[in-house]
Amino acid sequence: MKIIVDAMGGDNAPEEIVKGALNAVEAVGVDVVLVGRGEEILRTLERSGNSNLPNGVEIVDASEVIEIEDDPASAIRLKKDSSITVALTLLRDGKGDALVSAGSTGALLSGATLIVKRVKGIRRAALALFVPNSASGFLLIDCGANAECTPEHLVQFAYMGSFYAESIMQIKSPRVGLLNNGTERTKGTPLQLQVYELLEQACGSGSLNFVGNVEAKDAMKGVCDVLVCDGFTGNVFLKSIEGVASMIMSELKGVFMSSARTKLGALLVKNGLSGLKEKLNPDLVGGTPLLGISKPVIKAHGSSNAFAISNAIRQANVAAKADIAAKLSANISKMKASGRDGE
Amino acid sequence: MKIIVDAMGGDNAPEEIVKGALNAVEAVGVDVVLVGRGEEILRTLERSGNSNLPNGVEIVDASEVIEIEDDPASAIRLKKDSSITVALTLLRDGKGDALVSAGSTGALLSGATLIVKRVKGIRRAALALFVPNSASGFLLIDCGANAECTPEHLVQFAYMGSFYAESIMQIKSPRVGLLNNGTERTKGTPLQLQVYELLEQACGSGSLNFVGNVEAKDAMKGVCDVLVCDGFTGNVFLKSIEGVASMIMSELKGVFMSSARTKLGALLVKNGLSGLKEKLNPDLVGGTPLLGISKPVIKAHGSSNAFAISNAIRQANVAAKADIAAKLSANISKMKASGRDGE
Questions:
Q1: pLDDT in tens, A208-239
Q2: d(C-alpha B231, C-alpha B102), whole Å
Q3: Which of A91, A94, B135, B318 is the most buried (most CB within 10 A)?
Q4: Cβ <8 Å between B134 and A247
Q5: What is the C-alpha separation between B31 and B21, in angstroms, rounded?
């Protein structure tokens, strides 16, 4: 497998990206194509002790970088030689099997849709994030790509999430829940009411294992493997998890640091606490797949370090093998909401 | 002040409700009207050592109870002698200054709207919950009363929340934020885009201190005093806070209980941890005001114990003195979205 890596994307580019890619060549056993300002990449390679290009590593030059302040949609068109644009074009042209970028989510999203294209019949690509919980975690889809959604979009997200959970997370017949403000079938806005019906039909026909409406607190307890929602709600959910976890961890730190007695206490539970922190750490999983695109695209966290990038490349490798796009194509007829909200 | 208390609402009714009310008569210095099955209430009073009706306590008989499985909207009409219906009627008729119930949120909401009525010009009543964060907390409005909202609803929630924060939480010029999936003004669905503009206008005219779009994670850091959203998103936010906090606390327990060493560690930080748990405890605040109703109605948590009920009664007393409804009435002309989404 050959993974295309946007070497210029994210807060720690290109250093950490290049290091992570080199690491993945060894640890994952893939080839990588580093896309970005060639000279900067070469200098970074030299600084990590590689005066020659290591085996399994290619560089493709791209002179521009899409910055966080650029408008994502227009940046893809205006910066034709940006690392994201060039990387996506390489992916489209079969010069690699999957792509990893820690750059602008919006630019990656518009670029992937524009250049690599969606699977035929899929209305929207969605971001699917693995969220740790008290059980073995769940996949939140969409977690921010589409603020506004139709029932058909959400039904397609349910299938994408289910295929991903089955292929990549190795879960047989993944339990798909609909994020809602209560568990009764009458809960939610007209969007949730319609999606409930459509998912129930899909479950009845054996295509999906729909477990009904799921409240945010129960998702954290582990009642489903895939949690479907519009990207606005998913984003709020995701950022509230982040905010609450960080608040509690910082309050805990305050508790532990308040006296000599508590500092000793902290010392005694140190290992366990590190384990908990690790569980809540997004770097471990590495990346968020952009599902519905015809080839695997993985968005790594903007603050990714080498470890996170290496993990994202591992994930890209698995995704390339699993070929979710082919599964979506084969099942696309089930994912149409009988024309009631076709675009 | 005289506070009307639904003695039959919540998981621990009537015992804990009655105890909490008795406590509030002493601690808060209010009179209470206990509404519910008279004999049950009397027996509960006897069990707590009151063979005579204590000073400041009245009982009003109501033979029915709205159960959690009843449909909220129809229950109010069908169970005319339910404790919630009777309590709301007493409030409407001036037989008390405010109402506290730990019963069905939906029934309280429909009943309050139907019987006590909204402030003239207010389109929807909203639930405003105080959420603890790293700073001094914030008011989340709406946290579940209205799944679907128009821009005008959200603008009214912003005013309600601001008046409440000013009068009850004693915050001068409360910072009002709009919950969104990013901080840029272009973020969100058409709902957030329109509300942003309207709140900006209100801020320009000096009626509100609008601080812009706020992400869930930043709300937990304390960037605003009032956070405005539709009830669907607010409910998901709230329940994710609940879910994440409970997940982390239970993981922590696992860490602390894993060995003799960590158990000793736990002992050393015990006091600090209790403080943190208390900070995250909804019982301390006691209740969620139902704003936009013409008289103060406080929803106490369904699992309220006597302590929580006593706190909710304290809050009802403050709310009755503050008279938010009068402030809303006086400012109603500012809260109209110039007819663009009037009903």
A1: 999 999 999 999 999 999 999 999 999 999 99
A2: 19
A3: A91
A4: yes
A5: 9
First to last CA, chain A: 36
| Distance from the B17 Cα atom to the nearest Cα atom in chain A, whole angstroms | 26
Contact across the interface for B272 and A261, Cβ inside 8 Å: no
Looking at CA atoms only, how far is residue A86 from chain B in angstroms? 27
Q: ipTM of this predicted complex?
A: 0.90
pLDDT of residue A71: 87
Give the span between the Cα atoms of A84 and A76, in whole angstroms.
8
pLDDT at B8 over 70: yes
Contact B59, B83 (CB under 8 A): no
pTM of the model: 0.92
Tokens representing residue A132 in the block: 């740790």
Q: Do A220 and B237 touch (CB under 8 A)?
A: no
What is the helix, strand, coil percentage profile of chain A, to 5?
A: 50, 15, 35
Contacts of A67 (CB under 8 A, 6+ apart): A104
Cα A155 to Cα A119, A326, A335, B92, B190: the distances in Å are 15, 18, 7, 46, 22
Does the distance separating the beta carbons of B189 and A147 come in below 8 Å? yes
- SS3 at position B149: coil
- Residue in chain A closest to B251 (alpha carbons) equals A276
